[in-house]
Write a structure and sequence with these properties.
394 residues, alpha+beta, 4 domains, 5 helices, 24 strands, 34% strand, elongated
């Protein structure tokens, strides 16, 4: 207890003033100078601060390590392209004609139905012939009157010619009789033409088939009044048969040089050779496809109109292609490209050539090599030079 009490007792201060020349004297100060212990502590603190400053200047400033981004990849494998592509079409006749009357009138009879076979000059439908018969009768009467007028004009001309030869008729009277005869002759010719026209119109009141074929559509019914040229029936002529298909734009160039064949759904084991006859220059507004007509060579009676057929197009030369998912293809305005992962797991954007597309895949013909790893998901958010970690799809 006495020892603890002694430790807490304040030490007596030396109030001896400093004087000039005395050790530790500070001008203007009457207190005692710091002792050896105080100077040692100050020097230690200064050394510690200097050491901390030096340590801070020598801190490690190296950049943080790059974080690898996980990506899903697929290994590229080239194989011989299946050079065949099937398109579904319909069998049609090469020549299909809409039949219409050459004169207006009211339909009184229709003699055919859809699917009926007709021969050339068979009657398809008839108009009411009453008005046309009246026109024929009127033209015949005009012809009779013109014939009689010509006979009278000729007789008067002959008498005028005889009187002129005897000197009892003037030249003016003779010229007048000659003009009357010529006019009567022209009136007779006009009457004959009018009669022929009336008879033709009477004949046109019957709609006839222009060739052998099959009726594929009917658009006119008895009692209907039709103008000139309005379709009443459609005739598919016998002869060449064609398969009509819709081609996507990626097959336009190949269709012109590919080998074509046709198989009917009713006879899948039988194939017909075909050739491209017509390719539409404009795409359909709704489907954005191009209509193509392939002529079926050596078609027989088994190739019926309206049958469903498969048109197969085969490439003349085989091409090696690689199938990649459609999600792997990126286009930033400079063409199709894909991200490829190199040996150091660094991304590289590589342009590719694509021959065709499907709903889920793209077929690459150039720009990749066998064994390349291409990124298949999230390519829109990637950049070249990015460090990645690859993962195979499950």
């Amino acid at each position: 207890m006495l020892a603890l009490h002694a430790l807490h007792q304040p030490k007596p201060r030396d109030t001896q003033p400093f004087h000039p020349g005395a050790p530790g004297y500070w001008p203007g100060r009457a207190t005692r100078a710091p002792g050896p212990t105080t100077r040692t502590a100050t020097r230690a603190l200064a050394a510690l601060a200097l050491g901390l400053a030096i340590a801070g200047c020598q801190a490690n400033t190296a950049p943080a390590p790059m974080v690898e981004r996980p990506v899903q990849v697929q290994r590229v494998a080239f194989a011989a392209e299946d050079g065949k592509r099937d398109f579904v079409g319909i069998v049609r006749a090469r020549y299909e004609t809409d039949l219409g009357f050459r004169v207006p009138g009211k339909i009184v009879t229709r003699l055919v139905n859809v699917g009926d076979r007709v021969k050339a000059n068979d009657v398809i439908a008839r108009l009411d012939p009453q008005d046309f018969k009246l026109q024929v009768e009127s033209a015949e009467a005009e012809l009779a009157a013109a014939t009689s007028g010509l006979s009278q004009a000729k007789a008067e001309f002959d008498r005028s010619a005889q009187l002129k030869d005897r000197g009892f008729a003037s030249n003016a009277d003779f010229d007048k009789k000659q003009a009357v005869r010529d006019e009567a002759d022209g009136r007779l010719e006009r009457a004959r033409r009018s009669l022929n026209l009336a008879r033709n119109q009477l004949d046109y009141s019957e709609l006839k088939a222009g060739a052998d074929g099959v009726i594929t559509a009917i658009t006119g019914e008895p009692g209907q009044v039709v103008p000139i040229g309005q379709p009443v029936a459609r005739l598919a002529r016998d002869g060449e048969r064609e398969a009509i298909v819709a081609l996507p734009e990626t097959w336009l160039a190949d269709a012109r040089k590919a080998t074509a064949s046709v198989r009917l759904w009713s006879e899948r084991d039988r194939s017909f050779k075909a050739r491209l006859r017509e390719l539409s220059p404009q795409a359909d507004a709704a489907t954005r496809t191009y209509a193509a007509r392939f002529t079926i060579e050596d078609a027989d009676d088994s190739v019926a109109l309206g049958m469903t057929a498969t048109v197969t197009l085969a490439h003349a030369e085989e091409t090696a292609v690689a199938r990649v998912p459609l999600s792997a293809v990126l286009n930033r305005g400079t063409g199709a490209s894909v991200f490829v992962v190199d040996d150091q797991k660094i991304l590289a954007l590589r342009p590719v050539t694509i021959s065709s597309f499907t709903e889920q895949a793209a077929f690459v013909t150039a720009g990749l090599r066998d064994g390349d790893e291409v990124v298949t998901l999230g390519v829109q958010k990637l950049e070249p030079g990015l460090k990645v970690r690859t993962m195979q799809p499950r």
